[in-house]
Amino acid sequence: MAKWYVSINRASEDRRMIEPSVPVPSTVHEPVWTVHGLLDAYRRRAVSPVEVIDQQLALIERTEPTINAFVSVHVDEARAAARASAERWAAGRAVGDLDGVPVSVKDIVAMAGHPTSEGSTAGSPTSATEDAPPVARLREAGAIFLGKTTTSEFGWKGMTDTPRFGITRNPWNTDHTPGGSSGGAGASMAAGVGAVAHGNDGGGSVRLPSSYCGLVGLKPTFGRVPQAPVESSFITLVSNGPLARSVEDAALLLNVFSRPDVRDWYAVPHDRRDWRVGLNDGLGGVGSGRLRVAYTDVLGGATTRPEVAAVCRAAVAAIESAGHPVTSVGVLFDPLRPHLEDYWKAGFAARLRVIPSDQWSDLDPGFRQLAQEGLAVDAAGVQAGHAARVRLAETMRRFHQSYDVLLTPTMPTVAPTVDTVYHSPEFDRWADAVPFTVPFNYTGQPAISIPVGTVDTPGGQLPVGLQIVATHHRDDLVLRVARFILDLLRS
Questions:
Q1: Which residues are catalytic?
Q2: Which residue, among 246, 311, 322, 291, has the nearest Cα to 452 in the 3D structure?
Q3: What does the pLDDT look like over 102-142, one tens digit per residue?
């Protein structure tokens, strides 16, 4: 049976926590902070950063043996940063936009003073000497780092389990995966840890765990958020973004993440706008018109599970009941696998080539197999993948001449169990994991996942996400529509 979110976990008044716009599992009994709610509490002296970080570290200690969301927890650093933040708030000298806000960072980007393992057994990574751009921006904004979160090996798959760090589990039901590759980020947030989490998304790796864990997950326009280094074969697919508990928090984090960094020559010119402005504008378009909204759950020939489709269609029906027409569209483009499978494998092969062959046996077997197959892909095969991306981008350019936003399920399924073999007949990457997300990594468009309901399973409820996609550089539209839909479903 499909269910909407009509109410969510509420904190008692004495906690003075602003209610998040996404639910949390019923097993979570601690205060669950939004960024905006926490900053408001700091301003009113209702709570101090020291109290919050102590609570967060205690929560990590209790939940980690089960969910395994962290590669490392930076206890001493977090407590020292909390004391410094508390002094600033007490003196009325808070810094940045996130002073005292607890965050986590996916262990696939560099954090000064800590190694970056990328979930792999390969090599012996040394501590980074400088922060990657998203981490630098969080630090400048006053955020407090709780630690680094788990990822699949090199971020290769939409589940999070590695030979090195083991299995990360979903707090909604620990027999199920939180998704990947930002699985630790999604699991920690669903467990109530952190006010926001950093992730990055090269095929759905922010949106996928957000869907499986009942969160808001934003993949900005490619180049909106600077990143470094930029030599990866997948660099033009990846966008860094937040996993959050409200659209407002996602918008604030986009303000922070998108600030310029000279290390990224792919970055688009910095837009100085506050991405929170206009969130309440609803589905109004230019003048007296309305946004032109389309929906499909068969994108690229995808097959959505009936129970997931029912939840997403119910959200679409709610939009229409509020007076905003939504046009059903079809597949829009042919299946991507025949055109992009070799392109995908070739990127893995590029990574495999720099790992000593005597270490290959220690790698995730699924990654190793695909990477070794990718060694046979020649330059013509890679170029064919680039050509397929160009054709896909042109298809979506034409689509957006008729429609402002596209709605799809984020995922065609709810979270599979942790013993599921990824990219197998049981759970195929192209059919079951990324048919709705990866197209917009190839085109670079902004997309967001929001939680719109749950599905009953034998082990309890599991969340369902709805994806909102807009044309390039219209991150404001995906945020605005996301806010409208979540407010509508909560009313």
A1: 106, 181, 205
A2: 311
A3: 999 999 999 999 999 999 999 888 999 999 999 999 999 99
